Amino acid sequence: MATLKLHSLVKRFGDVTAVNGVDLSVENGEFLCLLGPSGCGKTTALRMIAGFENPTAGDIFIDGMPVTAMPPNRRPTAMVFQQYTLWPHMSVFQNIAYGLRLRRLARAVVEEKVADGLDLVGLAGYEKRLPSQLSGGQQQRVALARALVLEPKILLLDEPFSSLDAALRVRLREELLRIQRQLGIATIFVTHDQEEALSLADRIALMQLGNIVQLDTPSELYAHPRNLFAAEFIGAMNLLPTHPSDPTLGLDPRTLSLPPGMQGNASLTVAIRPEDFQVTVPSEPGMWTGEVEQTMDMGHYRKVLVTLAGASAPVKVFMAKSMEVRERQTIGLTPLRYLVYAEESEPVEVVPDRPMPQA
Amino acid sequence: MAGSATTVMRSMVGRSLRLVAGRPWFGICLLLLLALVVLGPMLNVFLWAFTRNWAYPSLLPTVWSIEFWDDTFARADILEGFIASVWISLIVTGLSAVICLPAAYAFARMQFPGRTFLLLSFLATNAFPRFGLYITIAVIFFRLRLIGTVPGVVLIQLVNTLLFMIWIPTAAFQGVDRALEEAALDVGASPLRVFLQVTLPLVAPALAAALLLTFIGTFYETQGALLVGVPEVRTLPVVMIRLINNQVIVQYGAILSVALWVPSLLLLIFAQRVLRGNTIASGFGV
Ligand SMILES: Nc1ncnc2c1ncn2[C@@H]1O[C@H](COP(=O)(O)OP(=O)(O)O)[C@@H](O)[C@H]1O
Ligand SMILES: [Mg+2]
To answer: Could you say which of B177, B189, B282 has the minimum Cβ distance to residue A91?
Structure first.
């Protein structure tokens, strides 16, 4: 049975609709990311689950029980906030013990659970510190321990690492995933960082303007973004317009293997991942040819911007560093896989079966 | 508003500190001058309180004595004045807290029409000449037969306390991060418990400062007490004025002055303890 179920959840603030009819269910032990640009309603959705906002409409069920009317202090959820929220007048021990003491547990039990919690987040021995004596990363670890010792049914995190530096963010991400797997706790993690979501989630709920536009595994979301917003938001993507009725605008449709159902459309968008190009130097007949505008060394691969006929912006291409290209050089590009988007319909994946010219 | 005032004050203090930091000699001279201006008269008063005879050119009293202390506190009017002052100040501070603190919480947390206007109106009681206001109040009190009564004095002194008791706590409540309260709700604390165990400890230093300022301000308040209290109710400052007007014995004034330091010092020590207790919370007992 699903641990959490949201049913047509809506939240309006005056004229602003922050969450616009969200349906979602989170399974036992699942790690779900709510992903989307700033202002799309992620925090509002999470705060409704925690009980800090009352839904305008819709219902929330935890373990099958309706909790929509339950105040936050009685919900079996625990939250880690975006900003640091350790109580400054309490020590680390007191912060973590606070919720346990409210449950009237014996002193020895409280001490044991606090010690276990601190162990889990790698801060054993920090009991007597004050929050002001901890770094940002340590404070968020304590906040995580404070949430976990209560053994909530659902762990909620709202961009908990967004104010930390990049290296620390990656480390805490890995730590969180290890802990989540170890405890098997259903987790909802809010982030606007698609890379963070891809690396953490079992499933990602991609949000736009208060709606979930796609709910899928990271690899599925990456391979088959359901609309242009998803295509552009997840990973790097080239969006190239083409017009079957007018070959002079955009990409020449004759160089594409357009699906039969789409050949009558006035305008389409072709989405190609930068790693889905085969690069040929020099170019050969039958390929797209373009001029290299810029090359960037990205460590284990090379990123190249190519000016392509029919493309309004330079096309991003990722290629192996074993192949040499120079700026201003003309190269050949062969797309190995792409998606074609028509307005108001599902995208179609195309894997051209033409024989590839060898480089 | 209160926030921007503090910011301005902070930047002014910051600027003068930087000025001093750049020129150590300038700073030291400024400090000595300040000590001379502030502490000089206080030291002089302190010495007079233990003097029988102080011949002019001598730097210190020529004949020391504590006999005037006995004389001073043997006087019934002074002792009664002291007791009256303590009681009235306690009542005024308590009443002010009961009225103002919930109001401050509402100002900080709720949006209602006329909020800004109301908040500013408390400034008005201090921005305009006080004595005019007092005369008007006295006229009304006269009709209500409140002149010469303790409730009359308490009421007029209450007017004075509104500004500090509203503005300081309002700013303090506004300064509490709501997420800290939500985090407490989240782990299971009831709203009342959140207020008592999270909000209140966070604003306690500011509330203590407001109470302290109110008590001391009321203890030394003279105009209102003089206008409304006499002849029946005489607080210590009122008694002092009469003493000084009637017979010029420097020691009486000096001793009363020194005696009046006591509540200030006590409350300063108390405030310091509250502030320290709050910043260095240690031990596991909640
Ligand atoms: N308390 C509130 N009052 C009014 N509008 C709000 C409030 N909270 C959020 N909003 C609005 O709702 C929308 C979604 O906000 P939020 O859930 O914080 O987005 P996200 O977390 O995805 O950045 C935004 O347009 C925001 O301005
Ligand atoms: Mg947010």
So the answer is: B282
* DSSP SS3 for B286: coil
ipTM of predicted assembly, 2 dp: 0.88
Which residue has 């159902």 as its token pair? A261
Quote the CA–CA distance of A35 and A157 in Å, as a whole number.
12
* Contact (CB<8Å) B186/A50: yes
Kindly give the distance from the C-alpha atom of residue A60 to the centroid of ligand 1, in angstroms, as a whole number: 19
- pLDDT tens for the 286 residues of chain B, in order: 444 555 555 555 556 556 555 667 888 888 888 888 888 888 888 888 888 888 877 878 888 888 888 888 888 888 888 889 989 999 999 999 999 999 999 999 888 888 888 888 877 777 777 788 888 888 898 899 888 889 999 999 998 898 889 988 999 999 999 999 999 999 999 999 999 999 999 998 888 888 888 988 898 888 888 888 877 888 888 888 887 777 667 788 788 788 777 767 877 776 676 665 544 333 323 2
Q: Which residues of B touch A90 (CB under 8 A)?
A: 281, 286
Decide: A191 in ligand 1 pocket, CB within 6 A.
no
Q: Cα of A42 to ligand 1 centre, how many Å?
A: 8
Contact between A337 and A312 (Cβ < 8 Å): no
Is A78 part of the contact surface with chain B (CB cutoff 8 Å)? yes
Q: What pairs with residue A338 in β-bridges?
A: A350
- Paired with A216 in beta bridges are A204
Neighbours of A177 (CB within 10 A): 16
Work out how many CB contacts closer than 8 A connect A with B: 76
